[in-house]
Amino acid sequence: MSKVIAIANQKGGVGKTTTAINIAASLAAAEKHILLIDTDPQGNSTSGMGIGRENLNGSLYNIYNGTKNIEEVIQNTELNHLKIIPSNIDLIGAELELIAKEGRETILKRAIEPVKSRFDFIFIDCPPSLSLLTLNALVAADSLLIPMQCEYYALEGISSLIKTLELVRGSFNSHLDIEGILLTMFDGRNTLANQVAAELKNHFGDKVYKTMIPRNVTLAEAPSHGKPVILYDIHSKGAQSYLELAKEMMGNENGTG
């Protein structure tokens, strides 16, 4: 059964796009059928998968303005089992155009429906703000994966995201749940990082993934080469941690996590 997971955090710089690209690639390497939807106008998931943001034949913007259907904008990537719906700066225009549209919150949900059964996981990389694009992602999603940096303001950020989750549940998507909380850029030598991790585990229990993503230069380098980290340097700590996360996610799906 297909699962749609929005990767979101209203705070920027937490490793959201890094997570979107690399969990999608790691699960695809395990021969799961994956669709990655880039719903951020910056298009970082798009360029991070080696797709030029200029002169796209089709993008998520075309879905929102009704000029193409979903089949026409899905593109292949270097990984056989991983497809992507790219985006670029045109998506900013969609924000303005959506305001006047009837049923504007459910456009992405309706667009995904015809292809949903073809994929094991559909990941939606959200912008770092609560916009109509993010709202569409949360309405389309079954669950929410929250990447978090273990720092002083992290807990403040997650509380505002939980409020958003509750609002979306109340008005548009009553089944939206937390898929998991992922600790990113983790440094075990840092006392504050350990304190924040402990507090999150205390509050959210087994919703916090056992796998933690370390600070890793290779993870930062890979996007500039247009590759997920497993294609850039599979032996790096960053690559191994996302492969571990993929195993944990598959174990949770199978009830063995």
Summarize the structure.
With 257 residues, the chain is of the alpha/beta class.
Describe the structure.
The protein is of the alpha/beta class. It has one domain (3-253): P-loop containing nucleotide triphosphate hydrolases (Rossmann fold, 3-Layer(aba) Sandwich), CATH 3.40.50.300. Helices cover 43% and strands 14% of the residues. The protein is built from twelve helices and seven strands. It has helices spanning 16-29, 44-48, 60-65, 70-73, 91-98, 107-112, 132-140, 154-171, 191-204, 217-221, 229-232, 237-253, and strands at residues 3-7, 34-38, 75-76, 82-85, 121-125, 143-149, 177-184. Strands 3-4-2-5-1-6-7 form a seven-stranded mixed sheet, with helices on both faces. Helix 1 (16-29) packs across helix 12. The longest helix is centred in the middle third of the chain and has 18 residues, at 154-171. It is globular, with a radius of gyration of 17 Å. The chain starts with a strand and ends with a helix.
The gross shape turns out to be globular
The secondary-structure class comes to alpha/beta
> Which regions are unreliable across 5 or more consecutive residues at pLDDT < 50?
none
Terminal residue distance: 18 Å
- Quick one: biggest sheet? 7 strands, mixed
Helix percent reads 40-55%
CATH homologous superfamily heading = P-loop containing nucleotide triphosphate hydrolases
Estimate the mean pLDDT confidence: 91
Whole-number tally of structural domains: 1
Number of strands: 7
Strand order of the largest sheet: 3-4-2-5-1-6-7
Report the CATH architecture. 3-Layer(aba) Sandwich
Number of helical stretches of at least 4 residues: 12
CATH topology: Rossmann fold
User: What is the CA-based Rg, rounded?
Assistant: 17 Å
Could you state the oligomeric state of the chains shown? single chain
Give the CATH class: Alpha Beta
Query: What fraction strand?
Result: 5-15%
